Please model this.
Amino acid sequence: MTDEMIYLDNNATTRVAPEVLDAMQPYLSKFFGNPSSAHALGREMKRAIEQSREQVANLIGAADTTEIVFTSCGSESDNWAIRGVLAAAPNKKHIVTTLVEHEAVRNLCRLLESEGYEVTWLGVDGNGELDLDSLRSALRADTALVSIMLANNETGVLFPIEEIGRIVREDSEAAFHVDGVQAVGKVPISLKNVDLFALSGHKLHAPQGIGALYIRKGISLSPMIIGGAQEQGRRAGTSAVPNIVGLGAACRLAREDNDHERIETMRNRLEDEILRSIPNARLNGIRDRSKRLPNTSNISFEYVDGQNILMHLDQAGICVSTGSACHSTTHESSPTLRAMNVPYTAAQGSIRFSLGRYNTEADIETTLSVLPEIIAKLAAMSPYEEELARLR
Ligand code: PLP
Model:
């Protein structure tokens, strides 16, 4: 089934790269020891973990490998960063974040509100961009943490984290956590002015179930999982060595990869052609592509239903997503698009196309050959005849 499918949903998850699978294989068979064991098998597992730690550190530019701690996923990394900072600063009860964070940050901050924390929610403009002045004025003496993503999972809009981190440093004593899950492997990472940085393997061709948290040296972070002394005593639990090796291999691959331009060229062709040929198509997120991930296009097909578009594309063997995958079971419009003030009739028809290294030009041409017809068919069934006629 999967070989014939056109997979344009790489922000939801990615295929495990063959190189990653090859690197993992020995640790799923021959090398099965516990890295905490003192014997030769245990030592080999430990060596493999430390090699992966170095590969992760190299990709994101950490100064020291001890700043990288392996976790089970991006959500765990985000949760730990946030809760860990708050636990280490019990007298500070204020958090600053944005309305467009992934659920891993957004829902945790909502929960923290019910636990007595005060959260300042920064909004975005119609392009999905943050107003840095509002960040500046949100910072207070009791701000424990600022948590802001690098790349939005739905629109691909990038936030200027180096500048944000500079503001946080200049105007507060808060720690700065960055959810970098969607950015790693897609754009170069700079940790300048960043204290904590979350990433997740399955977004860059490693398997699901492995993540990491960068913790700048000197940042005080309480552990969240208590138990053995694994990960320098910071995160207990027997290490998932095959997955850790997979993440290391994926990071190495992302560094060596020269595919980024090809992916961006395909994305641009898809986006340009959709916007040119489909009258009710509009882009969500800033037009300036240097401020967006190179693989993502979020496009609304006004006055038609996104779920219907998704199903028609699925029947044609093309996998996309309506907004973020986490919303696929609900009919609420995406909080990101709501924060951007995208009208309901456009937000409901939004589709996220997210490309990856295994896409080909033929995938893009096939998508472009079927999509206009699908949209035209659904538009003909739409109750918004007059509005659609005006767009033609
Ligand atoms: N943060 C962002 C921006 C994401 O896109 C995701 C996953 O979609 C996560 C966090 C959560 O990562 P994980 O699926 O590894 O828990």
Summary: Residues 267 and 295 are 6 Å apart (CA to CA).
